[in-house]
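TASK: fixed-backbone design
INPUT:
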């Protein structure tokens, strides 16, 4: 765990196929903090009941999450949010009813990573993968199980390309970490199946590290 870098304590592609990612040094970015976000303090049973109620009201729950890379020590690092010093998450969250993937992800990124919540300043790229929850109590899978007739949740991962500089303003009850891809790779125990699978999703890309 010592390789994690805590950040918030007080472009375009040039490949014809779009398989090149420009990555800028961590030192190109500014990190600050803002008022904490409200979080539900609920048990697993409470969460399942909330999911059931939302499903009855709105149908399939869709979550969108961002894969954001920076460079540190000449190696790509993934930006992760940490909650209560134990739970790691990608920046993002649940869509509102009728909201598009792109607009919803921009809204979530602005709420959790900026100060003025401006949704226009995010370059959301391709969808890297989709995970499905076939039932309320089950885990997410990177495919729909054969007996999954009516999935209850879909989580989509989108590549978000950063500009050469940006201000990240993070709620005080979240930690923003930069974690090397080599530490995340297949580390299911620490980061869970979705995050630990991201290095494989990125394997088709080449990283163009740009020193400012």
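OUTPUT:
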């Amino acid at each position: 765990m010592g390789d994690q870098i805590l950040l918030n304590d007080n472009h375009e592609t040039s490949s014809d196929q779009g398989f090149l990612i420009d990555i800028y040094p961590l030192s190109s970015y500014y990190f600050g903090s803002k008022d904490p976000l409200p979080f539900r303090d609920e048990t697993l049973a409470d969460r399942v009941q909330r999911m059931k109620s939302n499903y009855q009201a709105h149908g399939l729950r869709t979550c969108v999450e961002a894969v954001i890379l920076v460079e540190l020590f000449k190696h790509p690092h993934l930006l992760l949010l940490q909650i209560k010093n134990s739970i790691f998450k990608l920046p993002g969250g649940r869509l509102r009813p009728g909201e598009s993937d792109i607009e919803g992800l921009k809204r979530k990124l602005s709420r959790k990573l900026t100060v003025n919540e401006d949704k226009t300043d995010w370059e959301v790229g391709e969808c890297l993968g989709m995970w499905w929850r076939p039932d309320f109590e089950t885990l997410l899978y990177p495919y729909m199980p054969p007996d999954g007739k009516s999935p209850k949740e879909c989580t989509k991962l989108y590549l978000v390309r950063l500009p050469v500089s940006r201000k990240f303003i993070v709620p005080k009850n979240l930690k923003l970490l930069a974690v090397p891809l080599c530490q995340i790779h297949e580390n299911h125990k620490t980061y869970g199946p979705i995050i630990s699978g991201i290095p494989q999703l990125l394997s088709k890309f080449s990283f163009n590290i740009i020193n400012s």
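COMMENT: The chain has five helices and 13 strands.
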